[in-house]
């Protein structure tokens, strides 16, 4: 029996947590086309759904189970670059985050492959996300989408030097009410031993930019965490570090509780 494309937990909170990049499922026909480097699945948002588990018990969650090498659930379905002029990976990546090929010679996906993966993976995940946004907004008059991400702290192909621990993305304030942005920033700036940035290298991916329409009652914010904050090592086997994570979870919970408390004041 094949793995479902997404997993959903319906909660009663105005906050929705989305996990587009924690999935590691790669159908055999696609896995067979990956080269040895691609099969490491290095660009996974390792353990992020575990990191957030239970922090806001009433939150709705929507998680893609497929890997981003199948198709990236946080990319524009039309293939438009999120960061024109900068190194990045596309809708169906041809390389990993280090710029190294992930497909066997001659096995990179073609247009027909991409179209099929849009239909079978990308579209169902986003249909589930839309359904939950509409359900939550119908209950509360507002929905806050918090898009959960992580990435290695050092990737020269994508950015110079070390990435900050907390990377908040709101597309320069366009995707959510300023109170949500400020509440998040207040927590991370006060978090001892961590550094942070607002709308730095990561300004919010397609999910945040597409759904974040404050004038409609839908607010979106992205949190990109450096994986050094919660992994034993940012290399295989990418093991979860419980001590690091427990320390980090205190601040993540603070963020989620604060933005949940803001929600009633955002009703149109």
Automatic annotation (TrEMBL):
Top-level taxon: Bacteria
One Pfam family cited in the UniProt record for this chain: FGase
Protein name as annotated: N-formylglutamate deformylase
Gene3D superfamilies named among the record's database cross-references: Zn-dependent exopeptidases
InterPro entries assigned to the protein according to its UniProt record, in alphabetical order: HutG_amidohyd, N-FG_amidohydro
């Amino acid at each position: 029996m094949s793995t479902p494309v997404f997993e959903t937990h319906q909660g009663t909170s105005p906050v929705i947590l989305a996990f587009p990049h924690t999935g590691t499922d790669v159908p055999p026909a696609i896995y067979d086309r990956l080269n040895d480097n691609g099969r490491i699945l290095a660009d996974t948002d390792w353990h992020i759904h575990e990191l957030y588990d239970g922090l806001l018990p009433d939150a709705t969650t929507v998680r893609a189970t497929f890997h981003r090498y199948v198709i990236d659930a946080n990319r524009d379905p039309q293939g438009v670059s999120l960061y024109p002029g900068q190194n990045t990976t596309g809708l169906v990546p041809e390389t990993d985050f280090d710029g190294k090929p992930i497909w066997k010679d001659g096995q990179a996906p073609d247009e027909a492959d991409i179209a099929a993966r849009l239909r079978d993976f990308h579209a169902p995940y986003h249909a589930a996300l839309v359904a939950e946004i509409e359900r939550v907004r119908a209950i509360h008059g507002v929905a806050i989408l918090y898009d959960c991400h992580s990435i290695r702290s050092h990737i020269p192909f994508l950015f110079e030097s070390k990435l900050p621990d907390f990377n908040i993305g709101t597309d320069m304030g366009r995707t959510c009410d300023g109170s949500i942005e400020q509440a998040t920033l207040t927590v991370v700036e006060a978090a001892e031993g961590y550094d942070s940035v607002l709308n730095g290298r990561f300004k919010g991916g397609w999910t945040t930019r597409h759904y974040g329409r404050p004038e409609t009652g839908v607010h979106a914010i992205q949190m990109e965490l450096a994986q050094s904050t919660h992994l034993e090592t940012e290399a295989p086997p990418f093991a979860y570090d419980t001590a690091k994570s427990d320390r980090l979870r205190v601040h993540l919970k603070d963020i989620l509780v604060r933005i949940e408390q803001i929600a009633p004041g955002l009703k149109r």
